[in-house]
UniProtKB/TrEMBL annotation:
Annotated catalysed reactions: 3-O-(beta-D-glucosyl)-L-seryl-[EGF-like domain protein] + UDP-alpha-D-xylose = 3-O-[alpha-D-xylosyl-(1->3)-beta-D-glucosyl]-L-seryl-[EGF-like domain protein] + UDP + H(+)
Cross-referenced InterPro entries: Glyco_trans_8 (IPR002495), Glycosyltransferase_8 (IPR051993), Nucleotide-diphossugar_trans (IPR029044)
Biological process according to GO: protein O-linked glycosylation via N-acetyl-galactosamine
The keyword Kinase is annotated on this UniProt entry: no
GO molecular function list: UDP-D-xylose:beta-D-glucoside alpha-1,3-D-xylosyltransferase activity
One Pfam family of this chain: Glyco_transf_8
Annotated source species: Ciona savignyi
Membrane topology, from the record: Single-pass type II membrane protein
Entry protein name: UDP-D-xylose:beta-D-glucoside alpha-1,3-D-xylosyltransferase
Enzymatic class: transferase
Residue runs in coiled coils: none
Keyword Cytoplasm: no
Compartment list: Membrane
Length: 396
C-alpha cells in the first residue's frame, strides 16, 4: 500500500487548487484534507472536477508522482506552423498531449509566421501554472537561407513544412531533436520515442517510420518519380534528428561523385527534382536516405499511425501488442467527417480538462469512438484505446 506523507498531500492540493487560481487556498486545503482523512469526496478542493477517493488519489499521483527529476536533461521538440488559426490550434493540442503524458521536462522550438505568434502565447498562458512548469518554449520566425529560393522553399508542399530541413543550421546549440508535424498527437510518453536515440548505431543520424507496410498499396512504390528509401519509402511526420551528426556527415547522392554536406546538398537536390516532388520535403528526405540508407533507423508504424493504416484494413502490425503510440492526422483527418475515429481522438485530447484525472480520458475517448459511424478505422479503435490505456497504466 502506498503511504503518502501529509506534506505531499498539501503540495498536491496546492497544485490542484492552482488549476483554477483559488484565492482561498488554505481553506480549500483544510477542507480537502479533512475530506481525505474521513474518506469523503473533497468536492470543495478548488477544481471543478468532483473527485471520489480513488480518483483523488489518481489526481495526486498524476500531479506529483509522474514528473521526472529536475536534473533530467530536457527533451527538445520542434514543430512548424504556418497558415491560419487552425494550425495554431493543432500545434497547441500537439504540445498539450506531449506534456500531458511526459515524465521529463520538454523544451519546444516553435517556428511560426509572425502573425500567429501572439495567438500561441495567449493560448499557452491560459493553461494552469503547474502544467506550464513542465516545459519551456521558444518561438522563432520562419527562416530560409539566402539562396534565391526562399519562396519556393516556403511553398514546398504545405506552407513552411520544409523549415525542418534547415534545423541543423538554425539550432546550432541543440544536439538532438524530435521534429513533429502540427497534426501529430502523442498517446504515449515522449521519452519512449526519445529512447530511440539510444538505439542508433555509429552511422545512423535520423529515425523515421515507413510510409506504408505493403508495397502493393504504398504510394511511393506505385507512383514516385524519384528515388525513395527502401521498399515503400518513409513518412516524415515524426522525425528524430541527431543534429550534430547531420551537421558533420558527408552524404552520397546522384548530384556528383564526391560526397556533400547536408546544407550544401539541399538546394541542388531541390533544383534537380523540383518537377517530380509531390510531398515536398518528405520526398527530398526519401531521396537523401535512398542514397544513404545506413544513416537511417526505422521506427514501427505505431509511432506514426495514419489513416492509411486502417482505411481498408488494419495494416500496422506493431499495434497488436503496444497499441497506437503516436497518431498522425494527415489528410485533415483530425477535422473532417470522413475520418470520425481520428477526429474523436483529437477532440478528446483537445477538450480534456487539465484538472481531470488522466483515466477519465480513456472513458471520454471510448464514448466518442463508440458513438462514431461504422468505418474500417472504427473497427481498429481497440488498438487506439489499448495504446492509451498502456500509457496511463504506466504513469499511474
Amino acid at each position: 500500500m502506498m503511504v503518502i506523507h501529509r506534506n505531499v498531500i498539501y503540495y498536491c492540493i496546492i497544485v490542484i487548487v492552482g488549476c483554477h487560481g483559488s484565492k482561498t487556498i488554505e481553506t480549500s486545503i483544510s477542507t480537502a484534507l479533512r475530506a481525505w482523512e474521513s474518506i469523503r469526496s473533497p468536492t470543495t478542493a478548488g477544481c471543478s472536477v468532483q473527485f471520489n477517493k480513488i480518483n483523488f488519489l489518481e489526481a495526486i499521483q498524476q500531479k506529483c508522482y509522474i514528473r521526472g527529476r529536475p536534473s533530467d536533461p530536457p527533451i527538445h521538440v520542434a514543430v512548424v506552423a504556418c497558415g491560419g488559426e487552425d494550425r495554431v490550434e493543432e500545434t497547441i493540442v500537439n504540445i498539450k498531449a506531449l506534456v500531458l503524458f511526459s515524465t521529463i521536462r520538454i523544451t519546444f522550438h516553435v517556428f511560426a509566421d509572425e502573425e500567429l505568434q501572439p495567438s500561441f502565447r495567449d493560448r499557452i498562458k491560459k493553461w494552469p501554472s503547474y502544467f506550464r512548469r513542465q516545459f519551456t518554449y521558444t518561438i522563432y520566425n520562419i527562416t530560409y537561407p539566402e539562396d534565391g529560393q526562399q519562396e519556393n522553399w516556403r511553398r514546398l508542399f504545405k506552407p513552411c513544412a520544409s523549415q525542418r530541413l534547415f534545423l541543423p543550421s538554425i539550432l546550432q546549440d541543440v544536439d538532438s531533436i524530435l521534429y513533429v508535424d502540427t497534426d501529430i498527437l502523442f498517446l504515449s510518453p515522449v521519452q519512449e520515442m526519445w529512447g530511440e536515440f539510444d538505439k542508433f548505431n555509429s552511422t545512423q543520424l535520423s529515425a523515421l517510420s515507413p510510409e506504408h507496410e505493403d508495397p502493393r498499396v504504398g504510394w511511393y512504390s506505385r507512383f514516385a518519380r524519384h528515388p525513395y528509401y527502401g521498399v515503400t519509402g518513409v513518412n516524415s511526420g515524426v522525425m528524430l534528428m541527431n543534429l550534430t551528426r547531420i551537421r558533420n556527415a558527408e552524404f552520397k547522392s546522384d548530384l556528383q561523385e564526391s560526397t556533400m554536406r547536408w546544407q550544401q546538398m539541399l538546394l541542388p537536390l531541390y533544383v534537380k527534382y523540383s518537377l517530380n516532388l509531390t510531398w515536398g520535403d518528405q520526398d527530398l528526405l526519401n531521396i537523401i536516405f535512398h542514397y544513404n540508407p545506413e544513416m537511417l533507423r526505422m521506427m514501427p508504424c505505431n509511432k506514426n499511425y495514419r489513416p492509411d493504416h486502417c482505411m481498408y484494413m488494419q495494416m500496422c502490425a506493431s499495434t497488436a501488442h503496444e497499441g497506437v503510440r503516436v497518431m498522425h492526422g494527415c489528410r485533415r483527418s483530425f477535422h473532417i467527417d470522413k475520418w470520425p475515429t481520428f477526429r474523436s481522438v483529437y477532440a478528446a485530447v483537445r477538450d480534456f480538462h487539465l484538472c481531470s484525472p488522466l483515466p477519465t480520458l480513456v472513458q471520454v475517448l471510448w464514448d466518442g469512438l463508440s458513438r462514431g459511424p461504422d468505418t474500417q478505422c472504427k473497427l481498429s479503435s481497440d488498438v487506439i484505446l489499448r495504446g492509451l490505456r498502456r500509457t496511463i497504466h504506466g504513469l499511474l
